[in-house]
Amino acid sequence: AGCALVGGETAEMPGMYEGGEYDIAGFTVGVVERSRLIDGSKVKTGDVLVGIASSGVHSNGYSLVRRIISDNGLDLGKVYGDMDKPLGEVLLTPTRLYPKAVLPVMKEVTLKGLVHITGGGFYDNIPRVLPEGCRAVIDADQWPVPPVFPFLMKEGGVEAREMYRTFNCGLGMLLICAPEDAEKAKAILAAHGEAVYE
Length: 198
Hints:
- There is one protein chain.
- The chain is α+β, with helices and mostly antiparallel strands.
- Helices cover 30% and strands 14% of the residues.
- The longest helix is centred in the C-terminal third of the chain and has 13 residues, at 179-191.
């Protein structure tokens, strides 16, 4: 991501660590001119959401993933369903970082909001950048959902709403822009090799 790692925090991961064990997770701190903040305050009705593909499960929902694996006796070395790799490899695919994808767009398009689909999925993250009285209308048929998500949904008996509350379901970052800027944003992302969906 072009950032220096200068600090960390402890992460609580139930069921993963025993007493006295810990995990160190990195974070970044940045500086931006107040006039250039992208905080969602300019989002308005009619704006467009442009989604960038995720690389998989990323780093959220693993307590649920581990329970599904345990409850169903799944083999991490086995290829399931439409996945092209063993389950363990699919689940260990590194989380995508999006600065290199988003920065070229920011240079040419006014972005009104950015939504990183992390813990809380679509339901908790998108509302954070919406002004009062505004809602996002999303058609989940507009992007391909990687095979790991329907697999987890079926094996775990997870309801659709819970899937979208827990996982990114194939979109890791959403850009919000005016309708007249959406095509340009998509073209810039596509030119940088991104799988992008409106």
